[in-house]
Amino acid sequence: MPLSTQEEEVAEALEKITASLENLQLSQEEMQANLEVIEVIEEELQQQSEHLAVESQFYYELFQFAPDAYLLTNPQGVILKANRAAATLFNVLHSFLIGKPLALFVPETERSVFRSKLNQLSLVDSVQEWETVMCPRGGQPFDASLMVAPIRNTSGPLVSLQLSIRDVTKYKQVNLQPQSVTARQLLPLAAAIETPHSLDGLRVLFVDDEADAREFITVVLEQHGISVTAVASVAEALSVLERSRPDVIISDIRMPDEDGYALIQKVRAIEAEKGWHIPTAALTAYLAEDRAKALKAGFQSHLHKLAEPTELVAMVAQLAGRR
């Protein structure tokens, strides 16, 4: 018996309701699956958060308990973060350092130069090495070695500075004494060279922007009869090479304007033009300097400034082919 119009409408409505219930059931199942995925993601995020917390604590303690003074400043040198060693170095409470300009711990006679160097960091990207005089609160001034790393954002502007500061007063007292004292101390170095006069007349060109380093290296080498021409820049070194050919070139790596890598490139160009071959050595006070990088750049040897004077003399002798 055919269905009436009303019965057909009811049947059609029931079909729609059944379809809706099925869709609702499917949606619930999908929602449940999504909830399970969210729970897994939340668990992973929780684990990552705990891991990051542990890592953050590790690096915080590494920063705080490092033996050297470490600071984070804004581009103007105002201290944003400091570790305990920095507070000890400057003889103040840790909380006192935050918000203070680092120039506060530089003697007034040195502040204009210090600020000028800070301003120059907006033009460079590499780590800069400085030497300056710093003064702790209520204490005596000391010679400080600074490693300054400029930090930029993705668009380029300078946003902060990372600094490590080390008191090098004792090192300089031991290794950079006046020439008359140093000469007496260097007399035993003759034993490092098999023939006492084997280096007489050897000519060395030494390039370093630090006057104390130039004086010290000159004294060390001249005690063995080596003639030393010490200059403060790459430009001065090239001027010397226009007039004469040294037997060995020793150069600091990190210098303002043009560094040791720029020098070695220009020396190799001069050699190609004049048919020369001048043995070269890189000398640096930067503990993290990559020896492999210096050798790859063209230097035949690499030595740290903290090395014993005997090592320096032996290196020059080896480069010059003398014993």
From TrEMBL:
<feature type="modified residue" description="4-aspartylphosphate">
    <location>
        <position position="252"/>
    </location>
</feature>
<dbReference type="InterPro" id="IPR050595">
    <property type="entry name" value="Bact_response_regulator"/>
</dbReference>
<feature type="domain" description="PAC">
    <location>
        <begin position="128"/>
        <end position="180"/>
    </location>
</feature>
<dbReference type="InterPro" id="IPR000014">
    <property type="entry name" value="PAS"/>
</dbReference>
<dbReference type="GO" id="GO:0000160">
    <property type="term" value="P:phosphorelay signal transduction system"/>
</dbReference>
<dbReference type="InterPro" id="IPR011006">
    <property type="entry name" value="CheY-like_superfamily"/>
</dbReference>
<dbReference type="InterPro" id="IPR035965">
    <property type="entry name" value="PAS-like_dom_sf"/>
</dbReference>
<feature type="coiled-coil region">
    <location>
        <begin position="3"/>
        <end position="48"/>
    </location>
</feature>
<dbReference type="Pfam" id="PF00072">
    <property type="entry name" value="Response_reg"/>
</dbReference>
<feature type="domain" description="Response regulatory">
    <location>
        <begin position="203"/>
        <end position="320"/>
    </location>
</feature>
<keyword id="KW-0597">Phosphoprotein</keyword>
<dbReference type="InterPro" id="IPR001789">
    <property type="entry name" value="Sig_transdc_resp-reg_receiver"/>
</dbReference>
<dbReference type="InterPro" id="IPR000700">
    <property type="entry name" value="PAS-assoc_C"/>
</dbReference>
<keyword id="KW-0175">Coiled coil</keyword>
<protein>
    <submittedName>
        <fullName>PAS sensor protein</fullName>
    </submittedName>
</protein>
<dbReference type="Pfam" id="PF13426">
    <property type="entry name" value="PAS_9"/>
</dbReference>
